[in-house]
Protein backbone atom coordinates (compact mmCIF):
# COMPACT_ATOMS: atom_id res chain seq x y z
CA UNK A 1 0.00 0.00 0.00
CA UNK A 2 1.21 3.45 -0.82
CA UNK A 3 0.97 5.81 2.10
CA UNK A 4 -0.48 9.27 1.54
CA UNK A 5 0.83 12.43 3.13
CA UNK A 6 0.89 12.36 6.89
CA UNK A 7 -2.06 14.11 8.57
CA UNK A 8 -4.01 14.26 5.34
CA UNK A 9 -7.41 13.54 6.88
CA UNK A 10 -9.25 15.21 9.72
CA UNK A 11 -12.62 15.42 11.44
CA UNK A 12 -13.91 18.56 13.13
CA UNK A 13 -16.40 18.79 15.97
CA UNK A 14 -17.24 22.52 15.81
CA UNK A 15 -19.37 22.45 18.96
CA UNK A 16 -21.48 20.13 21.09
CA UNK A 17 -25.27 19.91 20.89
CA UNK A 18 -27.04 16.73 22.06
CA UNK A 19 -28.35 13.21 21.40
CA UNK A 20 -29.03 11.77 17.96
CA UNK A 21 -29.44 8.02 18.00
CA UNK A 22 -31.10 7.48 14.63
CA UNK A 23 -27.87 7.43 12.64
CA UNK A 24 -24.86 5.46 13.86
CA UNK A 25 -22.74 7.24 11.27
CA UNK A 26 -23.95 10.73 12.12
CA UNK A 27 -23.68 13.47 9.54
CA UNK A 28 -23.74 16.12 12.25
CA UNK A 29 -20.55 15.87 14.34
CA UNK A 30 -22.10 18.05 17.08
CA UNK A 31 -24.43 15.21 18.02
CA UNK A 32 -23.76 12.15 20.18
CA UNK A 33 -24.92 8.54 20.18
CA UNK A 34 -24.80 8.47 23.96
CA UNK A 35 -24.89 11.24 26.57
CA UNK A 36 -24.79 10.83 30.31
CA UNK A 37 -24.95 13.69 32.84
CA UNK A 38 -23.57 16.25 30.41
CA UNK A 39 -24.90 19.64 29.33
CA UNK A 40 -24.09 21.82 26.35
CA UNK A 41 -24.05 25.57 26.92
CA UNK A 42 -23.32 27.86 23.96
CA UNK A 43 -21.65 24.95 22.20
CA UNK A 44 -19.34 24.04 25.09
CA UNK A 45 -19.41 20.58 26.67
CA UNK A 46 -19.46 20.39 30.46
CA UNK A 47 -20.84 18.25 33.29
CA UNK A 48 -24.44 18.80 34.32
CA UNK A 49 -24.94 21.20 37.20
CA UNK A 50 -25.56 19.82 40.68
CA UNK A 51 -29.17 20.26 41.77
CA UNK A 52 -29.77 21.87 45.18
CA UNK A 53 -31.61 20.15 48.02
CA UNK A 54 -33.66 22.56 50.10
CA UNK A 55 -33.73 22.67 53.90
CA UNK A 56 -37.41 21.96 54.75
CA UNK A 57 -38.21 18.29 55.29
CA UNK A 58 -41.40 16.27 55.74
CA UNK A 59 -41.56 12.78 57.19
CA UNK A 60 -43.37 11.24 54.18
CA UNK A 61 -42.77 11.49 50.42
CA UNK A 62 -44.13 14.58 48.66
CA UNK A 63 -46.37 13.21 45.92
CA UNK A 64 -47.93 16.49 44.75
CA UNK A 65 -46.30 19.91 44.63
CA UNK A 66 -48.47 22.94 43.80
CA UNK A 67 -48.02 26.71 43.64
CA UNK A 68 -50.30 29.64 44.44
CA UNK A 69 -49.29 33.16 43.45
CA UNK A 70 -50.90 35.64 45.85
CA UNK A 71 -51.14 38.98 44.13
CA UNK A 72 -52.02 41.18 47.09
CA UNK A 73 -49.42 40.16 49.66
CA UNK A 74 -45.90 41.49 50.31
CA UNK A 75 -43.21 40.78 47.75
CA UNK A 76 -41.59 38.02 49.82
CA UNK A 77 -44.92 36.28 50.50
CA UNK A 78 -46.44 36.24 47.03
CA UNK A 79 -45.35 32.72 46.07
CA UNK A 80 -46.78 29.89 48.15
CA UNK A 81 -45.74 26.26 47.69
CA UNK A 82 -48.19 23.54 48.74
CA UNK A 83 -47.16 19.91 49.26
CA UNK A 84 -49.28 16.78 49.68
CA UNK A 85 -47.54 14.26 51.91
CA UNK A 86 -48.67 11.51 54.27
CA UNK A 87 -52.37 12.34 53.98
CA UNK A 88 -51.84 15.99 54.89
CA UNK A 89 -51.24 19.30 53.14
CA UNK A 90 -48.38 21.68 53.92
CA UNK A 91 -47.51 25.19 52.76
CA UNK A 92 -44.47 27.44 52.76
CA UNK A 93 -42.89 30.32 50.88
CA UNK A 94 -39.67 29.39 49.02
CA UNK A 95 -37.56 31.36 51.50
CA UNK A 96 -39.08 29.71 54.59
CA UNK A 97 -37.09 27.28 56.70
CA UNK A 98 -39.95 24.87 57.34
CA UNK A 99 -43.38 23.73 56.16
CA UNK A 100 -46.63 24.78 57.87
CA UNK A 101 -49.26 22.07 58.20
CA UNK A 102 -52.65 23.18 56.91
CA UNK A 103 -55.61 22.49 59.18
CA UNK A 104 -58.11 19.93 57.96
CA UNK A 105 -61.74 20.83 57.28
CA UNK A 106 -64.18 19.73 59.95
CA UNK A 107 -64.74 15.94 60.13
CA UNK A 108 -61.63 15.19 58.00
CA UNK A 109 -58.74 13.50 59.79
CA UNK A 110 -56.57 12.67 56.75
CA UNK A 111 -56.76 12.89 52.99
CA UNK A 112 -57.20 9.55 51.21
CA UNK A 113 -54.86 10.42 48.37
CA UNK A 114 -51.65 12.43 48.07
CA UNK A 115 -52.00 12.76 44.30
CA UNK A 116 -53.96 15.92 43.50
CA UNK A 117 -54.83 17.85 40.35
CA UNK A 118 -54.77 21.60 40.92
CA UNK A 119 -55.43 25.02 39.39
CA UNK A 120 -55.28 28.59 40.68
CA UNK A 121 -58.27 30.91 40.62
CA UNK A 122 -59.91 33.75 42.55
CA UNK A 123 -63.12 34.08 44.51
CA UNK A 124 -65.08 36.98 45.94
CA UNK A 125 -66.06 36.00 49.50
CA UNK A 126 -69.51 37.01 50.63
CA UNK A 127 -69.42 40.43 52.25
CA UNK A 128 -66.01 41.29 50.78
CA UNK A 129 -65.31 43.79 48.03
CA UNK A 130 -61.85 42.39 47.26
CA UNK A 131 -61.09 39.12 45.44
CA UNK A 132 -59.00 36.43 47.09
CA UNK A 133 -56.50 34.20 45.27
CA UNK A 134 -57.24 30.53 45.92
CA UNK A 135 -55.75 27.15 45.10
CA UNK A 136 -58.26 24.53 43.96
CA UNK A 137 -57.19 20.89 44.38
CA UNK A 138 -59.05 17.70 43.56
CA UNK A 139 -58.65 13.94 43.45
CA UNK A 140 -61.09 11.12 42.76
CA UNK A 141 -61.18 9.97 46.40
CA UNK A 142 -61.38 13.21 48.38
CA UNK A 143 -63.14 15.46 45.86
CA UNK A 144 -62.41 19.17 45.47
CA UNK A 145 -61.00 21.49 48.13
CA UNK A 146 -60.13 25.18 48.19
CA UNK A 147 -57.15 26.78 49.94
CA UNK A 148 -57.63 30.45 50.77
CA UNK A 149 -54.49 32.37 49.81
CA UNK A 150 -54.97 34.92 52.60
CA UNK A 151 -55.89 32.74 55.57
CA UNK A 152 -54.65 29.32 54.34
CA UNK A 153 -58.01 27.89 55.43
CA UNK A 154 -58.93 24.63 53.67
CA UNK A 155 -62.58 24.12 52.76
CA UNK A 156 -64.35 21.40 50.82
CA UNK A 157 -66.15 22.32 47.60
CA UNK A 158 -69.41 20.51 46.92
CA UNK A 159 -69.36 19.09 43.38
CA UNK A 160 -71.72 16.61 41.64
CA UNK A 161 -68.86 14.10 41.27
CA UNK A 162 -65.36 13.65 42.66
CA UNK A 163 -62.88 14.70 40.00
CA UNK A 164 -59.48 13.11 39.51
CA UNK A 165 -58.46 16.01 37.24
CA UNK A 166 -59.45 19.67 37.01
CA UNK A 167 -58.57 22.53 34.67
CA UNK A 168 -59.53 26.20 34.22
CA UNK A 169 -60.96 27.07 30.81
CA UNK A 170 -63.13 30.00 29.66
CA UNK A 171 -63.51 31.13 33.30
CA UNK A 172 -65.01 27.82 34.35
CA UNK A 173 -63.52 24.93 36.26
CA UNK A 174 -63.72 21.64 34.37
CA UNK A 175 -63.51 18.23 36.03
CA UNK A 176 -62.99 14.68 34.79
CA UNK A 177 -61.39 11.31 35.61
CA UNK A 178 -64.49 10.33 37.57
CA UNK A 179 -64.21 6.80 38.92
CA UNK A 180 -67.85 5.81 38.37
CA UNK A 181 -68.33 7.85 35.17
CA UNK A 182 -65.06 7.77 33.18
CA UNK A 183 -66.56 9.27 29.99
CA UNK A 184 -68.01 12.32 31.73
CA UNK A 185 -66.65 15.88 31.84
CA UNK A 186 -68.34 18.49 34.03
CA UNK A 187 -67.97 22.26 34.22
CA UNK A 188 -68.85 24.89 36.82
CA UNK A 189 -70.77 28.09 36.37
CA UNK A 190 -68.60 30.91 34.97
CA UNK A 191 -66.48 32.89 37.44
CA UNK A 192 -67.53 30.72 40.41
CA UNK A 193 -65.69 27.44 41.11
CA UNK A 194 -68.16 26.65 43.92
CA UNK A 195 -71.29 26.80 41.74
CA UNK A 196 -72.06 23.47 40.06
CA UNK A 197 -75.81 23.99 39.57
CA UNK A 198 -77.33 23.88 36.08
CA UNK A 199 -79.49 26.79 34.88
CA UNK A 200 -82.41 25.74 32.71
CA UNK A 201 -83.52 29.26 31.79
CA UNK A 202 -80.06 30.65 30.99
CA UNK A 203 -77.78 27.61 30.48
CA UNK A 204 -74.70 29.73 29.81
CA UNK A 205 -74.92 31.11 33.36
CA UNK A 206 -74.90 27.68 34.96
CA UNK A 207 -72.92 24.49 35.24
CA UNK A 208 -73.24 21.42 33.04
CA UNK A 209 -71.76 18.20 31.75
CA UNK A 210 -70.60 16.52 28.56
CA UNK A 211 -70.37 12.79 27.95
CA UNK A 212 -68.04 11.38 25.32
CA UNK A 213 -67.95 7.56 25.53
CA UNK A 214 -65.36 5.55 23.66
CA UNK A 215 -66.76 2.12 24.64
CA UNK A 216 -63.32 0.64 25.21
CA UNK A 217 -62.86 1.00 28.97
CA UNK A 218 -60.71 4.12 28.58
CA UNK A 219 -61.34 7.24 30.64
CA UNK A 220 -60.41 10.90 30.63
CA UNK A 221 -57.05 11.28 32.34
CA UNK A 222 -56.01 14.89 31.67
CA UNK A 223 -57.40 18.28 30.69
CA UNK A 224 -55.26 21.07 29.26
CA UNK A 225 -56.29 24.60 28.32
CA UNK A 226 -54.67 25.22 24.95
CA UNK A 227 -55.20 28.74 23.64
CA UNK A 228 -58.90 29.21 22.87
CA UNK A 229 -59.68 25.52 23.29
CA UNK A 230 -59.70 22.77 25.89
CA UNK A 231 -57.95 19.50 25.08
CA UNK A 232 -59.31 16.38 26.80
CA UNK A 233 -57.02 13.34 26.88
CA UNK A 234 -57.68 9.66 27.22
CA UNK A 235 -54.94 7.04 27.01
CA UNK A 236 -55.86 6.17 23.42
CA UNK A 237 -57.78 9.23 22.23
CA UNK A 238 -57.75 13.03 22.26
CA UNK A 239 -60.71 15.42 21.99
CA UNK A 240 -60.78 19.14 21.28
CA UNK A 241 -63.44 21.35 22.87
CA UNK A 242 -64.13 24.72 21.27
CA UNK A 243 -66.44 27.49 22.47
CA UNK A 244 -66.91 29.48 25.67
CA UNK A 245 -70.58 28.78 26.46
CA UNK A 246 -72.56 25.53 26.61
CA UNK A 247 -74.54 26.44 23.49
CA UNK A 248 -71.31 26.87 21.53
CA UNK A 249 -69.30 23.87 22.70
CA UNK A 250 -67.98 21.76 19.82
CA UNK A 251 -66.53 18.39 20.85
CA UNK A 252 -64.39 16.72 18.18
CA UNK A 253 -62.08 13.71 18.32
CA UNK A 254 -58.57 14.30 17.01
CA UNK A 255 -56.43 11.89 15.01
CA UNK A 256 -53.30 10.01 15.97
CA UNK A 257 -53.97 8.39 19.35
CA UNK A 258 -53.86 9.58 22.96
CA UNK A 259 -51.63 10.05 25.96
CA UNK A 260 -50.85 6.76 27.78
CA UNK A 261 -48.85 8.58 30.48
CA UNK A 262 -50.95 11.63 31.45
CA UNK A 263 -48.36 12.92 33.90
CA UNK A 264 -46.07 13.72 30.96
CA UNK A 265 -48.45 16.10 29.14
CA UNK A 266 -47.05 19.64 28.94
CA UNK A 267 -48.15 22.66 26.91
CA UNK A 268 -45.44 24.32 24.83
CA UNK A 269 -47.05 27.49 23.43
CA UNK A 270 -48.56 26.22 20.15
CA UNK A 271 -48.16 22.50 20.75
CA UNK A 272 -48.50 19.90 23.48
CA UNK A 273 -45.78 17.35 24.20
CA UNK A 274 -46.38 13.97 25.85
CA UNK A 275 -44.48 10.72 26.30
CA UNK A 276 -45.42 7.31 24.94
CA UNK A 277 -43.62 3.99 25.20
CA UNK A 278 -41.90 4.66 21.87
CA UNK A 279 -40.89 8.29 22.39
CA UNK A 280 -42.33 11.76 22.70
CA UNK A 281 -45.48 12.64 20.73
CA UNK A 282 -46.73 16.11 19.83
CA UNK A 283 -50.25 17.47 19.47
CA UNK A 284 -50.31 20.50 17.17
CA UNK A 285 -53.99 21.43 17.40
CA UNK A 286 -55.05 18.95 14.72
CA UNK A 287 -53.53 15.57 15.45
CA UNK A 288 -51.10 13.59 17.61
CA UNK A 289 -47.89 12.65 15.83
CA UNK A 290 -44.50 11.11 16.70
CA UNK A 291 -41.93 13.72 17.65
CA UNK A 292 -38.37 12.70 16.66
CA UNK A 293 -38.88 9.17 17.98
CA UNK A 294 -35.68 7.84 16.43
CA UNK A 295 -33.55 10.61 17.94
CA UNK A 296 -33.82 9.06 21.42
CA UNK A 297 -34.80 5.52 20.47
CA UNK A 298 -32.17 3.83 22.67
CA UNK A 299 -33.27 5.89 25.67
CA UNK A 300 -36.91 4.86 25.33
CA UNK A 301 -35.93 1.24 24.68
CA UNK A 302 -34.42 1.24 28.16
CA UNK A 303 -37.56 2.46 29.98
CA UNK A 304 -39.00 0.01 32.49
CA UNK A 305 -42.41 -0.50 30.87
CA UNK A 306 -43.92 -1.98 34.05
CA UNK A 307 -43.45 1.36 35.85
CA UNK A 308 -43.72 3.79 32.95
CA UNK A 309 -47.03 5.15 34.26
CA UNK A 310 -44.93 6.95 36.89
CA UNK A 311 -43.33 9.16 34.22
CA UNK A 312 -43.82 12.89 34.80
CA UNK A 313 -42.88 15.93 32.74
CA UNK A 314 -43.11 19.70 32.58
CA UNK A 315 -42.14 22.69 30.45
CA UNK A 316 -39.77 25.24 31.96
CA UNK A 317 -37.63 27.91 30.31
CA UNK A 318 -38.53 26.53 26.87
CA UNK A 319 -37.35 23.04 27.75
CA UNK A 320 -39.31 19.82 28.16
CA UNK A 321 -38.22 17.79 31.19
CA UNK A 322 -39.26 14.12 31.20
CA UNK A 323 -38.54 11.97 34.26
CA UNK A 324 -38.76 8.21 33.72
CA UNK A 325 -37.72 4.84 35.18
CA UNK A 326 -34.88 3.29 33.18
CA UNK A 327 -33.37 -0.17 33.35
CA UNK A 328 -34.69 -2.17 36.30
CA UNK A 329 -35.60 0.91 38.32
CA UNK A 330 -39.08 1.08 39.85
CA UNK A 331 -38.82 4.86 40.31
CA UNK A 332 -37.98 7.70 37.93
CA UNK A 333 -34.18 7.56 37.90
CA UNK A 334 -33.41 9.63 34.78
CA UNK A 335 -34.50 12.89 33.16
CA UNK A 336 -34.57 13.45 29.40
CA UNK A 337 -34.39 17.14 28.44
CA UNK A 338 -35.51 18.62 25.13
CA UNK A 339 -34.38 22.16 24.35
CA UNK A 340 -36.99 23.71 22.05
CA UNK A 341 -34.61 26.46 20.90
CA UNK A 342 -31.63 24.25 20.09
CA UNK A 343 -33.72 21.26 19.01
CA UNK A 344 -31.42 19.10 21.12
CA UNK A 345 -31.88 16.27 23.63
CA UNK A 346 -29.75 15.49 26.70
CA UNK A 347 -30.03 12.76 29.33
CA UNK A 348 -29.31 12.93 33.05
CA UNK A 349 -29.08 9.70 35.02
CA UNK A 350 -28.19 11.43 38.29
CA UNK A 351 -31.65 12.86 39.09
CA UNK A 352 -34.66 10.98 40.48
CA UNK A 353 -37.74 13.19 40.07
CA UNK A 354 -41.17 12.14 41.33
CA UNK A 355 -42.97 15.44 40.72
CA UNK A 356 -42.04 18.71 38.97
CA UNK A 357 -43.18 22.25 39.76
CA UNK A 358 -42.09 24.94 37.28
CA UNK A 359 -42.34 28.57 38.41
CA UNK A 360 -41.34 31.83 36.75
CA UNK A 361 -37.66 31.59 37.66
CA UNK A 362 -37.22 28.21 39.36
CA UNK A 363 -37.91 24.55 38.71
CA UNK A 364 -38.64 22.49 41.81
CA UNK A 365 -38.91 18.74 42.05
CA UNK A 366 -39.38 16.01 44.64
CA UNK A 367 -37.55 12.71 44.70
CA UNK A 368 -38.36 9.18 45.89
CA UNK A 369 -34.75 8.76 46.96
CA UNK A 370 -35.03 11.65 49.43
CA UNK A 371 -38.59 11.33 50.79
CA UNK A 372 -40.07 14.53 52.13
CA UNK A 373 -37.37 16.76 50.64
CA UNK A 374 -37.68 19.44 48.01
CA UNK A 375 -35.04 20.03 45.31
CA UNK A 376 -34.30 22.95 43.02
CA UNK A 377 -33.15 22.15 39.50
CA UNK A 378 -29.87 23.76 38.39
CA UNK A 379 -28.29 24.26 34.97
CA UNK A 380 -24.99 25.59 33.60
CA UNK A 381 -22.41 24.14 36.00
CA UNK A 382 -19.80 26.65 34.80
CA UNK A 383 -22.06 29.44 36.03
CA UNK A 384 -23.24 27.80 39.27
CA UNK A 385 -19.75 26.49 40.10
CA UNK A 386 -21.00 23.06 41.19
CA UNK A 387 -21.15 19.96 38.99
CA UNK A 388 -22.93 16.65 39.35
CA UNK A 389 -21.06 14.10 41.45
CA UNK A 390 -22.02 11.36 38.99
CA UNK A 391 -19.84 10.07 36.17
CA UNK A 392 -20.21 11.75 32.78
CA UNK A 393 -20.00 10.39 29.24
CA UNK A 394 -20.22 11.66 25.65
CA UNK A 395 -19.93 9.27 22.67
CA UNK A 396 -19.70 10.62 19.12
CA UNK A 397 -21.11 8.80 16.08
CA UNK A 398 -18.81 6.56 14.05
CA UNK A 399 -16.79 8.36 11.39
CA UNK A 400 -15.11 6.88 8.32
CA UNK A 401 -14.26 10.29 6.79
CA UNK A 402 -16.43 9.35 3.82
CA UNK A 403 -13.87 6.75 2.68
CA UNK A 404 -14.50 3.13 3.57
CA UNK A 405 -11.49 2.11 1.48
CA UNK A 406 -9.01 3.97 3.69
CA UNK A 407 -7.48 2.81 6.96
CA UNK A 408 -7.18 5.63 9.49
CA UNK A 409 -4.63 5.63 12.28
CA UNK A 410 -2.13 7.58 14.32
CA UNK A 411 -4.85 9.88 15.67
CA UNK A 412 -4.06 13.35 17.01
CA UNK A 413 -6.84 14.93 19.10
CA UNK A 414 -6.78 18.69 19.68
CA UNK A 415 -8.99 20.41 22.26
CA UNK A 416 -9.09 23.22 24.80
CA UNK A 417 -10.21 22.42 28.32
CA UNK A 418 -10.92 24.81 31.18
CA UNK A 419 -11.45 24.03 34.87
CA UNK A 420 -13.08 26.08 37.58
CA UNK A 421 -11.76 25.42 41.10
CA UNK A 422 -9.78 22.17 41.23
CA UNK A 423 -7.90 19.71 39.04
CA UNK A 424 -10.02 17.52 36.76
CA UNK A 425 -9.10 14.20 35.19
CA UNK A 426 -10.62 13.95 31.71
CA UNK A 427 -10.58 10.54 30.02
CA UNK A 428 -10.55 10.59 26.20
CA UNK A 429 -10.75 7.46 24.06
CA UNK A 430 -10.44 6.73 20.36
CA UNK A 431 -12.38 3.60 19.43
CA UNK A 432 -12.07 1.79 16.11
CA UNK A 433 -13.80 -1.40 14.99
CA UNK A 434 -10.67 -3.23 16.21
CA UNK A 435 -9.94 -1.83 19.66
CA UNK A 436 -10.10 1.18 21.94
CA UNK A 437 -7.24 3.43 23.06
CA UNK A 438 -7.67 5.62 26.16
CA UNK A 439 -5.68 8.45 27.71
CA UNK A 440 -6.36 10.54 30.81
CA UNK A 441 -5.53 14.22 30.81
CA UNK A 442 -5.46 16.11 34.13
CA UNK A 443 -5.77 19.89 34.16
CA UNK A 444 -5.40 22.24 37.14
CA UNK A 445 -6.90 25.73 37.50
CA UNK A 446 -4.90 28.73 36.40
CA UNK A 447 -2.61 30.18 39.03
CA UNK A 448 -3.03 33.75 40.27
CA UNK A 449 0.14 34.68 38.35
CA UNK A 450 -1.24 33.28 35.11
CA UNK A 451 -4.47 35.15 35.62
CA UNK A 452 -2.70 38.45 36.40
CA UNK A 453 -0.61 38.00 33.24
CA UNK A 454 -3.80 37.45 31.19
CA UNK A 455 -2.75 33.92 30.38
CA UNK A 456 -5.49 31.49 29.42
CA UNK A 457 -5.68 27.78 28.87
CA UNK A 458 -3.71 26.49 25.91
CA UNK A 459 -4.82 24.01 23.32
CA UNK A 460 -3.92 20.42 24.21
CA UNK A 461 -2.86 17.63 21.85
CA UNK A 462 -3.17 13.91 22.62
CA UNK A 463 -1.76 11.19 20.38
CA UNK A 464 -3.44 7.79 20.01
CA UNK A 465 -2.08 4.72 18.29
CA UNK A 466 -4.23 2.09 16.65
CA UNK A 467 -5.96 2.02 13.29
CA UNK A 468 -9.25 1.16 11.68
CA UNK A 469 -11.58 2.02 8.86
CA UNK A 470 -13.91 3.82 11.23
CA UNK A 471 -13.47 5.54 14.57
CA UNK A 472 -15.33 7.46 17.21
CA UNK A 473 -14.45 9.65 20.19
CA UNK A 474 -15.50 8.98 23.80
CA UNK A 475 -15.20 11.67 26.49
CA UNK A 476 -15.64 10.66 30.14
CA UNK A 477 -15.01 11.71 33.71
CA UNK A 478 -15.22 9.57 36.82
CA UNK A 479 -17.68 10.37 39.60
CA UNK A 480 -16.82 13.24 41.93
CA UNK A 481 -15.04 15.56 39.46
CA UNK A 482 -15.38 19.34 39.89
CA UNK A 483 -16.49 21.80 37.19
CA UNK A 484 -14.80 21.74 33.77
CA UNK A 485 -15.68 22.46 30.16
CA UNK A 486 -14.45 21.92 26.61
CA UNK A 487 -14.71 25.08 24.52
CA UNK A 488 -14.25 25.63 20.81
CA UNK A 489 -15.00 22.07 19.80
CA UNK A 490 -12.40 19.42 18.93
CA UNK A 491 -10.22 18.41 16.00
CA UNK A 492 -9.22 14.81 15.18
CA UNK A 493 -6.38 14.37 12.65
CA UNK A 494 -5.32 10.98 11.37
CA UNK A 495 -2.91 9.39 8.92
CA UNK A 496 -4.53 7.51 6.08
CA UNK A 497 -3.60 4.37 4.17
CA UNK A 498 -5.75 3.52 1.12
CA UNK A 499 -6.32 -0.02 -0.18
State the distance separating the first and last CA atoms: 6 Å
The radius of gyration over CA amounts to 27 Å
Q: What name is given to the CATH topology of one domain?
A: Jelly Rolls
Task: Report the biggest beta sheet as strand number plus sense, adding barrel if it closes.
Answer: 5 strands, antiparallel
- The number of distinct helices, counting runs of at least 4 residues, comes to 3
Helix content range: under 10%
Mean pLDDT: 94
Low-confidence runs (pLDDT<50, min 5 residues)? Answer: none
Number of strands: 41
- Strand portion: over 45%
Strand order of the largest sheet: 4-35-40-37-38
Summing up helix and strand content along with how strands pair, one would put the structural category as mainly beta
Q: Give the name of the CATH superfamily of one domain.
A: Galactose-binding domain-like
Shape category: elongated
CATH class type of one domain: Mainly Beta
CATH architecture of one domain: Sandwich
Amino acid sequence: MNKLNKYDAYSTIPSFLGLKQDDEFGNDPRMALEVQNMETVDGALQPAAACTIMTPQLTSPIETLARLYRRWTSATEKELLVAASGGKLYAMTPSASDWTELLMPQDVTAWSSNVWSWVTYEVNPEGSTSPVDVLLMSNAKDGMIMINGNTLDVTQVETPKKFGIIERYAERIWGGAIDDDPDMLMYSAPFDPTDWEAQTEIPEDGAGEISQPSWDGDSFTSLKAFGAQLIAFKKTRVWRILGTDPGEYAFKEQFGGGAPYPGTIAVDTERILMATKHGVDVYDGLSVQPFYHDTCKDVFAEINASYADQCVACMWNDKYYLAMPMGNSTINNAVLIYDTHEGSWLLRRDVCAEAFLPTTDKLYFTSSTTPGRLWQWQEDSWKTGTATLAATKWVTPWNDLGRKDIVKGGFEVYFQMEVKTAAVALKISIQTEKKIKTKTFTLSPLTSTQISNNQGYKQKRLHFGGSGRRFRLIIETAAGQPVWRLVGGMLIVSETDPD
